[in-house]
Predict the structure.
Amino acid sequence: MKFLHISDTHLGYSQYGLSERKKDFLDVFHEAVDTAIDKKVDFIIHSGDFFHTSRPSNETFLEGIEIVKRLSDANIPVFTISGNHDRGSQVRDVSPLAILQSLGLKLVDTGFIEHEGIFIGGLKYLSKAGLKQTGGIKAILEKYLDKIRSRDGFKIILLHQEFHPFFPDSSLYMEQEIPEGFDYVGIGHYHVKQEPKIINSATVIYPGSTEFTAYNENEDKIEKGFYIVEVEDKDINCQFYPFKNRRPFISLDFQEENIDKIILSLKEKVESLLDNHQKKPVVILRGHLKNLEIKDIISILNKEGLNEDKVLHYRFNLSKETEDITDVSFVTEGDDIVFPALKELIDDENLFHIVEDVIKNLQTYENIDEVKKYLKENPDIFPV
Ligand SMILES: [Mn+2]
């Protein structure tokens, strides 16, 4: 038996407001589908965030339908769960993935599906409030297992959850939450691919996201792709397949003193990518400005021919070195200050967790337009 495990495809995400980035997310998904067909996998598991939002555009729905259709034409079933991005409001509406069910997508947000003697279970993303209401992951998974524990057959569970240490503030530990009894645990939500690990006798894998959603230094050196898992008897062999045609990201540390050197090195990197018929890169410059302004840098880049013909997008993470400028990465680094302060402010513990969930959810979006869109789509964001 052979299956492909992919996660966090975030279909429909126009990062930086660019239609090219939206297409990038679609392209890599199709690359995975190509491999699934080529390698004749028996089925695909997807551990959540298939779509980037719970209200994909009609165009994005068509893209999702095309993916599911290509696979169903090839007789490859796809099992998935709803992630935090695409689970729907839970109160007023269903997950957008429910729409794809009639086309063959197998949504396992709760419980198990038996497929040719294999048990594929899933649990959709649960917020802290949701975890409290339901009694927690372990209790839910124990209930699933009660029904099938005595049955022979490979047992897979799909999760999309914030586990420690990937989410340092989380109090969810895989060792405690995943009961003994599963053979394979496929997890989504953390976007940096992890090597297979054995936890409570199960092989646990995070394939990571297929593309950068928010550019993160930790993801820089780690490849993006998916796993193909081969199972013979109880022997499990996991191989990672990096994408061959993913949008390159170039991240450079910027210092004004070395501007000539940095531009030269960027030029070499960009030319070499384009010579190898890769997509135009996204370039991220990080560091501090002293005398120059960002517009000066743009004009230098233009003069050097590093314009839109060669670079898809520039992201400048360059703050001026003056005291009155606050840390640009306030949102992530401020958590240690913000949440304890909020906790003091909000007496009711349940309400605090709900507010905390909402803020953390909003932090996963990269810019204000994305947040606005999310808020519009989720008017009942406070489930109180
Ligand atoms: Mn995700």
Q: What stands out?
A: The pocket of manganese (II) ion is lined by residues 8, 10, 49, 83, 85, 189, 191, 209 (CB under 6 Å). Residues 2-242 form a domain with the Purple Acid Phosphatase; chain A, domain 2 fold (CATH 3.60.21.10). The chain has a mean pLDDT of 89. The first helix runs from residue 19 to 38.
